[in-house]
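Quick question, first post here. What does this chain look like in 3D?
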Amino acid sequence: MSTQDSSVSPRPSRWGALQPAWASVPRAALGNLAAKLLIVSLGLAITVLVARQGPTVQGAFALFVAVESGLLTLFSGLGLWLARQISRQQGSQVHHAMPMLRSVLRAALGLGLIASVGLLAVSWWAEQMPYAQLWLLALAAPFLLLVPTATGLWLGQGRMWPINVAQVAAPASVLSGLGVAWWFTHGAIRTGPTVLMVLMAWVSGKSLVAVLTAIYALRNAEVRDTVVESTLSAEQADQFRQTPARWWDDWHFVATIGVTNVVSLLNYRASLFLVERFHGLSEAGTYSVAVTVAELLWLLSSSVTVSAYARIGSPDRRVAASVTVQAVRLNVLATVLAAPMLLVLAWWALPLAMGAAYAASVAPLAALLPGVAAYAAASSLSAFYTNHLGRPHLSGAIAGLSLTVSFGLGWLLVPRMGALGAGLSSSLGYIVAIVVAYAVFLKQAGLSVRALWTPSLTRV
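> Answer (accepted):
Ran it through. Tokens below.
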């Protein structure tokens, strides 16, 4: 059956329209969602620990993590390049994974060393938190890049459990490190340099997990190559042993993904820097909590996208478009239903768990939620642009549009309205951008607007 079907069918009920979308979601998405819930629980435990030291400490920590995220996203193209190479191999068109994995891991180490030099320079000249502590990130930079690079192997295979383990292990190791520090200092962490203690535990724990992840990925790639080669005919085995794809031949693809992801990150975090710029670390701390809570809505959408990433990369446009639309339907419905409940829970829980100062996080959270819920579809649409079309610049252009709208409005609203203005401007930026993202996707997929809510038009 073609991707578009003009036959007339009875109007389905809302649950009837949801059932095909839910049935099409890989069961691995549930495992990934469970892992993300555990990651969020660990992350919230770290956030509560830091936030209870005061909004200023929380603001410094949030800015440090934002810089780290910028480093990771800038070089994330290596892992996604590997994932695309693996996911698009079919039948006899299969090549050794080990050489490709080794090459991207070496590149990650080299780029991490270069980034370390820049971070050390910033730390040397900076006097204000958290930029003066970036020397910690410089020491860990070469290792931190190993996780998003190595997990590209499993992302391309559609194997979620190794990715889940790597993602859960990082915050777990950070909390373990904080627990050890707490035990050794006998509670002195409450009055000591809390930010430095947290940051040391953060970078050391994540570095350890990164090295172990890379070692396991190399071993897994070797086993995979041996198993695959044993199933091939002599002619296919000869082709299998031919020189595989090299990432530097696709450097423009890798670089475009990196720039695109940095733009996307700025889209999520630029408002935080604006709040710090105009109102200081304390208000940035309360606003960062609002952002963290709002982005909990993306738990399901990111889980569905990651688990479906390999199928979205199918060379068959009908298959890729169908999986993408089904993921979008489930993502948007789940976030729209969850947003009001999340706001009520935050209104009650934030001051109780973190302190009375964080009651100020509720208003910007309410402003953020409509845009965050609408933007839940962005991850699946981005996967279609990148993994199926091989055109990551489309994701970058859409994220850039959102950034332009939110930053432009934020420059006007944040000085006058503070964190509330940041939430409003970010939310409007998300909404404008997702409308454009839908239009681009429908054009590239050859679908009508009705296909977004009519399952029969995307059934294959």
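The two ends are 6 Å apart (CA to CA).
Residues 14-457 form one domain.
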